[in-house]
């Protein structure tokens, strides 16, 4: 049997903006079968927004597929690409509450929760807060946002060893006197009121973020300045605040989700969220199905990763 392919492209049959408070409206859409099993897709980033292919992890004849853009990005409003938009009310707690508000708005009782990369962080956070609302979890590219996890990506002793040219461009965009704390230096620039400062800084930050996204290089997406700024502002905001996770992080809350059927998938050569994070979650939660994909990196569309994710949603569709 060959690797599972994406389901065919589909369009939403319903969409809208939902007022979630604090002056925020989140864009949402539903696809597939209106009478099918509810599933919600949580995008990565944070700040990445949903993409059309995200709809294709689910059998559209069996699932009522819900997707939404998290606060500040995609088609949600206000957009964090505007440097005047505050991120004060953009935290994990707020996003978890938004998911609940969306569930209630759509009159969903319980749903499958699917998330990759930052989406796995948010999925675990949501499930630990509302375990009774989650039928299953499908998690990819586990991102625990512990200090050591961030050191891997933003210190010269980690990922920089594998991507030296990209690291040189990323760190070299900051004056030598500030390179001891690249996150702080980039934070000042990304949030600078002068577009001549913030846009190049955001693009350098995004280039580094995309450098290690897949096992084999793929062409970078063509993104406008507002999209890049929203992504980097929101991502930076979450990184420097430890993902706004509780003391002990996500592993401390595993008992609250232990009985939820779950699938954990991680690429062996995932350079963004290396498999030690997925392994630590697996050790804390051995009841969850666990897969390391030997020929994959971080991307959810990489063949081996995609195969496991669609296999999981196929098996859960009739449950």
UniProtKB/TrEMBL annotation:
GO terms for biological process: proteolysis. One of its GO terms (cellular component) is cytoplasm. It is found in: Cytoplasm. Pfam families: Abhydrolase_1. The active site is at 117 (nucleophile), 270, 298 (proton donor). InterPro entries: AB_hydrolase_1 (IPR000073), AB_hydrolase_fold (IPR029058), Peptidase_S33 (IPR002410), Pro_iminopeptidase (IPR005944). Keywords: Aminopeptidase, Cytoplasm, Hydrolase, Protease. Its EC number is 3.4.11.5. Residues 304-319 have a biased composition (Basic and acidic residues). Residues 296-319 are annotated as: Disordered. One of its GO terms (molecular function) is aminopeptidase activity. The keyword Ubl conjugation does not apply. It catalyses: Release of N-terminal proline from a peptide. The keyword NADP does not apply. Residues 40-299 form the AB hydrolase-1 domain. Belongs to the peptidase S33 family. This is Proline iminopeptidase. The lineage of its organism: Bacteria, Bacillati, Actinomycetota, Actinomycetes, Streptosporangiales.
